[in-house]
Amino acid sequence: MALVHDGLIEAIATDRDKAAFGSLFDHFAPRLKSYLLRLGCDESTAEDVMQEAMITVWRKAESFDRRQASASTWIFTIARNKRIDRIRRESRPELDPEDPALVPSEPTPADTVIESTQNEKRLKAVLSALPTEQADLIRLAYYDDRSHRDIAEDLGLPLGTVKSRIRLGLARLRSLLDETE
């Protein structure tokens, strides 16, 4: 019987023989469906996967090699692989195009970029006008995003001194920025 099925697949491969495919389908379709049901597929999924497998048999008949496997082994392997593909497809989450993480942010308007660049230059110029100990502490706290406690420990300064110098530096920065506007 195995040789008959091998011959049917070869007839499909060489001649696209519909009668041969019909015989193959009649024999294997119920067996594939039963196999898929035993693997845990529901009725509808088993039917779909069986049909996909048989369509693949029709399309890929020329890749069948009787020296590597019998017709039944080849067909059941196709069905098993189709079932695995289905499971992978279903377990992959669907992407929501409305997800904010996937929506690109709006480009920054040119006038905003220019204004931001000008403000940054102004701030750097004013920051350099501050006493060094105040400017360094402000850079550590705001540019390097370090806590006052970390700055105090690293520089060996009392925490109160760090806080006062930053507060005085920020007040001086505000007044210098107001003067430049």
> Which secondary-structure class do the elements indicate?
mainly alpha
Number of strands: 0
Gyration radius, to the nearest Å? 37 Å
H/I helix tally: 8
C-alpha geometry: rod-shaped
Q: How much strand?
A: under 5%
Q: Give a quick account of the main beta sheet: strands, pairing sense, barrel closure.
A: none
Stretches with pLDDT under 50, minimum 5 residues:
none
Mean pLDDT: 89
Helical proportion, percent range? over 70%
Distance between the termini: 95 Å
Along the chain, the helix and strand elements come as HHHHHHHH
Feature tags:
about 180 residues, mainly alpha, 8 helices, about 0% strand, rod-shaped
List the helices and strands and how they pair.
Elements lengths: L1 H14 L2 H21 L4 H17 L11 H21 L18 H19 L3 H12 L4 H8 L3 H22 L1
Helix pairs in contact: 1-2, 2-3, 2-4, 3-4, 5-8, 6-8, 7-8
Structure report:
The chain has 181 residues and is an all-alpha fold. Helix content is 74%, strand content 0%. The chain contains eight helices and no strands. Helix 6 packs across helix 8 and helix 7 crosses helix 8. The longest helix is centred in the C-terminal third of the chain and has 22 residues.
